[in-house]
């Protein structure tokens, strides 16, 4: 998280030995580790100057999350585009053959073919490999961006609606209009530590078809905890409530609902589903022991809607609290079910972490506006007073 990270994080020597980056993204994704914990640890061990780069990278995740909350239709547009592109594959044999060759590592492009296999086998790719893969997909192979984003989501253990969708749009020149990321042979050779040097890559970007950024909208209002006894419902979006909710809260029951298999239109990889469901099980166990209440996984063997309704009907309290569910597949899957509970007279409270509450208002436009606010926000969060970041 210090100087070595700052200098070497772009280099990917391969899956055998990858000491330059943390590989913690699946844990951040489900908040098994929080951004706050990681930043505090980085500052304690390395100090502000050396930890700057790591903190900024953590904040990219926060930025993408906050940006998508201000522009949630970018997620729903992605879902519609993805479904339309899958239909197009049914009709266009040439497109289908190119798409299948790309995801099966048969495109004949050095590096690209390896990364397709590494992703499907391990559920992880280094950031530089992700950028290069997406760029080759878009500009050399000229494949639709939504199918690439779907391929990543199907396999990544850290698959995230905000970071994935917006990173694909960033490479495509849709997030920062007109500014594409063009993969170059030399950069790939350097960043892959000499492992790959693909020839015949596209020499210029193209206008990638895709929806423009919509107008920014207000963040949804922040709910507060009820004054009385409540039940707690966990999803894959935040699985360490014991680190930010007081153990003395009066909690009647705890339950979890999984949604990992709803990430994509096609089958999600078994490994990715197993990682997420394992994380949910683990998060439930920790929450249960923190609050001294038994915690159950509702969707283990029954359909989500019936299991949630039966659980809600079994409660004495009329209040259900959830860590905030941001835009994405869990939101899409659970929102109609939560609305049904509300129609039945239950009160649903979605509460946000202070980290998101303090950072997200700065995530309406570009990353650099948020980056400038890092010292003052960390100060406000009592993580670092008078912090000076390098660069
Ligand atoms: C096309 C594309 C798709 C991506 N899809 C995802 C995704 O679905 N989920 C995801 O978590 N990240 C995604 N990323 C961002 C980034 O590649 C990964 O977060 C990072 O590679 C994870 O490896 P690490 O934990 O070793 O990162 P480290 O370098 O150790 O960074 C520490 C943490 O900071 C955050 N972070 C670092 N770089 C970025 C970044 N550029 N954007 C957002 N967060 C960052 C991650 O939470 C990461 O775990 C994507 C990037 C691209 C270019």
UniProtKB/TrEMBL annotation:
Residue ranges of every copy of the Cryptochrome/DNA photolyase FAD-binding domain listed in the record: 54-180
The keyword Membrane appears for this protein: no
Segments for region (Disordered): 199-222
Domain of life: Bacteria
Keyword field: FAD, Flavoprotein
Cofactor dependence: FAD
Family matches, as PANTHER family: CRYPTOCHROME, CRYPTOCHROME CIRCADIAN CLOCK 5 ISOFORM X1
Name by which UniProt lists this protein: Cryptochrome/DNA photolyase FAD-binding domain-containing protein
């Amino acid at each position: 998280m210090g100087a070595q990270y700052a200098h070497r994080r772009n280099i990917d020597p391969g899956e055998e030995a990858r000491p330059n980056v943390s590989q913690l993204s699946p844990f951040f994704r489900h908040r098994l580790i929080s951004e706050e914990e990681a930043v505090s640890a980085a500052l304690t061990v390395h100090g502000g100057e050396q930890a700057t780069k790591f903190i900024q990278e953590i904040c990219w995740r926060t930025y993408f999350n906050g940006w998508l909350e201000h522009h949630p239709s970018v997620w729903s547009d992605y879902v519609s585009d993805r479904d339309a592109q899958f239909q197009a594959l049914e009709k266009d044999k040439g497109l289908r053959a190119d798409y299948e060759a790309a995801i099966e590592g048969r495109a004949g492009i050095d590096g690209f073919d390896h990364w397709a296999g590494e992703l499907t086998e391990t559920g992880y790719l280094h950031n530089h490999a992700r950028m290069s893969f997406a760029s080759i997909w878009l500009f050399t192979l000229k494949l639709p961006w939504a199918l690439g984003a779907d391929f990543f989501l199907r396999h990544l253990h850290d698959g995230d609606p905000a970071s994935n969708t917006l990173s694909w749009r960033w490479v495509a020149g849709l997030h920062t209009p007109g500014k594409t990321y063009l993969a170059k042979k030399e950069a790939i050779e350097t960043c892959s530590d000499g492992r790959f040097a693909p020839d015949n890559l596209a020499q210029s970007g193209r206008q990638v078809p895709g929806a423009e950024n919509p107008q920014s909208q207000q963040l949804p209002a922040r709910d507060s905890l009820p004054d009385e006894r409540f039940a707690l419902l966990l999803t894959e979006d935040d699985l360490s409530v014991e680190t930010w909710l007081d153990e003395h809260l009066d909690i009647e029951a705890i339950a979890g609902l999984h949604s990992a298999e709803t990430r994509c239109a096609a089958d999600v990889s078994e490994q990715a589903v197993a990682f997420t469901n394992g994380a949910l099980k683990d998060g439930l166990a920790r929450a249960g022991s923190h609050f001294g209440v038994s915690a159950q996984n509702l969707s283990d063997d029954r359909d989500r809607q019936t299991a949630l309704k039966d659980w809600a009907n079994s409660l004495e309290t009329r209040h259900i609290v959830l860590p905030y569910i941001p835009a994405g597949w869990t939101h899409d899957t659970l929102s109609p079910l939560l609305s049904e509970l509300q129609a039945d007279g239950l009160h649903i409270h979605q509460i946000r972490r202070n980290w998101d509450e303090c950072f997200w208002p700065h995530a309406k436009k570009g990353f650099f506006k948020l980056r400038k606010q890092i010292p003052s926000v960390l100060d406000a969060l009592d993580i670092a007073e008078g912090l000076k970041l390098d660069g």
